[in-house]
Request: fold
Amino acid sequence: MVDSNKFDRRSVIKTVGAGATAGMLGLAGCSGNGGGNGNGNGNGNGNGNGNGNGNGDGNGGGSESVSWTIGTSGEETATHASGVAFSSVMNDNSDRIQMSAQTTGGTTANNRLIDQGQIDIAQSTHNLLWRANRDAGPYADPPIEKTICQTFSYMTLDIFLVKRQEASDLEGVTRVENLPEGTSISFGPRGTSAWDAANDGLSILGIENSQDYFNVSTMGLGDQADAMNDGRIDVCTCYTANQETLIGWIQQLDAQVDVDVLEWGISEDQAASADVPVSVAEVPGDTWNQEITHDPYTALPLGYTTAIPAEISNDLVYEYTKVLMENVQPVRDASAVLSRHGPDFATEWLQPSGVPVHPGAEQYYKENDMWDESLTTLDEFEG
Reply:
């Protein structure tokens, strides 16, 4: 297994998105008329379970058709919007893959749900897949049994913290490292990438256990605007997406509450030397309608990708990648946060080491001169 833990993709200039609230989860279904074992010899076993090792060069059964459930996040999130958009495009343009989007407890939970067989594929992030494939962080106990691959990046969420200007205890505080002990704060709900990214940033700054250091309230990301407006919390987690705009509930926060963005103050060198994949980006202050002290300000970007277990056959993942790479506009039209989706962005935020690209996606990239040699193949990962 590849041992490097560094994320050294390109930085972006500005970025919107959301994490999740918990959703009810049903069992995923997979059906087919020819099962392909995914091992590259084309001799499908006919039972529709698609449970091969996925590391061959064949199509694992050309007549296979499936019905996939893609795990997303809370219904109000950009992650769910992407799953709904991808499902719609697949259903309209593929004779072999039908999809439905399922809300979940968040992107952190999704990799576990794939491993348990409760969903087929899921939206996740580069750093969560890195953790899942080395049984780290939330995946340490019990460990993830399946190898979970990345496919293509379709958006970034840049994580940062904002304070309520009327919070008397925070007068003059403009940097995260200067937040006093006991500050009332929300990172959103556990199980979201926003929670994990914010706490990764705090760890770099020397706050290893935010639960002990701060007065942490757990709530839906979309509930944070009202909590800030009511004075129930003084700091909350926000983000931009794709270098363009703030999403709905953060726009509500911007309109209702006098806030200021807290500067992370994390350098590229600090991010590069972190124990987990972390990157930094500068976001222009004019993403907000009110005046921001630090312009630009630093955020911690997360690259979002569809996570697919290696056991799913190469030809199905090739089909999934091909359809979504060749039907870009319907995806972009579905949500403003998907404005960067397409071939030019597909490998931009994939994790270069520690997470394999699914062989089906790899094949599509190589056929279309899109492959990035810094990425890791499944053979390299398993070798």
Remarks:
- The chain is about 25% helix and 15% strand.
- The longest helix spans residues 78-93.
